[in-house]
Amino acid sequence: MTRYQTILFCTIFLSLFTFQYTSTFAKNALATIPFELHGEHIFIQVQVNNSSPLSFIFDTGASATVLNHKEASGLKLSSDGFTYVRTSKGPSLAYYSENNELSLHDLVLDDVRVTQLSLDHLERVMERQVDGIIGHDLLDQFVVMVNYDKYALEFYDPGAFQAPGNFTSHRIELISGRPYIDAALTLSNGETLQGRFQLDNGSGSSITVYSPFVDQHNLSKKVGSTNLIYTMSFAGITDKNYAGRLQRLDVGNYQLTNIPIRLNRSRYQKRAFEDGIGHIGNEVLKRFNIAFDYTRGISYWYPNSSFVEEFKAAYSGLVVKSNRKDPRVYVKHVFENSPAFHAGLAKDDEIVMINNVKTEGRTSHEVNDLLNKSVRDIEIVIRRNNEMKKLSLHPRSL
Known about the structure:
Layout: H1 3-24, E1 31-34, E2 36-38, E3 41-48, E4 54-58, E5 65-68, H2 69-75, E6 81-87, E7 90-104, E8 107-117, H3 120-126, E9 132-134, H4 136-139, E10 143-147, E11 152-156, E12 168-171, E13 173-175, E14 178-186, E15 192-199, E16 207-209, H5 211-216, H6 219-222, E17 227-232, E18 238-251, E19 254-264, E20 278-280, H7 282-285, E21 288-293, E22 298-303, E23 314-315, E24 318-323, E25 326-334, H8 339-343, E26 350-354, E27 357-358, H9 364-372, E28 378-384, E29 387-393, E30 396-397
Parallel strand pairs: 4-9, 5-8, 15-20, 16-19
Antiparallel strand pairs: 1-11, 2-3, 3-4, 3-7, 5-9, 6-7, 7-8, 10-11, 10-21, 12-22, 13-14, 14-15, 14-18, 16-20, 17-18, 18-19, 21-22, 23-30, 24-25, 25-26, 26-27, 26-28, 28-29
């Protein structure tokens, strides 16, 4: 059987099982809430105290429910206390409001504590409205199935839940309201390392390993070729990372090969290292339909229709920006000695076209997909000082 035939067979098999699963199991759900996948982030509609529907990120890495301070002000939430949170400017006070009601269609959560924070940095990065973040408050009360085949969250009664027979169960450990699982990494040199990883669908990465573990095992030299990138956390903190490839990831009964990995170099991850050596992000998690059962400390996994897709990732060395008020796309940053640097791109260049595809009106996520999903030559048309230029960019393989 050829590789193409294998992929085709797997796709057909998964499609048949998905139909059976949808018709026989999902009907037992207490509620089914549709979600939107924006970039690698799950967005759902939530009402807070009978408000109009608000756009929340569903994040398994969120131990508290957060409401954007702009929305909190408009809803006139009470200030019942405060807590300290980590931000790009250091520790900061954040007020919280007790005894709130959250509604997701027909599903209602009572007595929810809502922390009020500024999420303006997320709106800038994601180029869309972000009203809040929710995770633990949903996962703690229900068994939650993240069904990527249906783009829906399914909620089940923990006392009556039984996973479909084809799902495999894997223990999870809850630490500070976040789920962790054991996994193994096989490096490019063949060495295998094991540790505990947070399951964090709020992260758009595949695998991220924190700086203490990177230093302890000298991963910068063992992973192979890497490229410098910068990422922003939900707290608005910019982290320095080196992006490369893993030979293999073993999580539960599943093996995934040739996976992008980020070696984090931020000092802020030292505390997280006490709980786990890194996190598994949504680029991996979205390849499974996963049920989280916090009551029993178990997760249930089944490969969905995207499981057989390759992890496409290249490196252009180009960071672009756009916003909802301006349809044009600009260069925000060019990494030194990157393909974009050698192609002649510079900060503040307007990107007009990529391989004959106009960029006007596209988000930076869409433009990054055009730039970083293939190592083939890319023809870019830019506008600089009111002059049009055509440049050739060859992304580097990750």
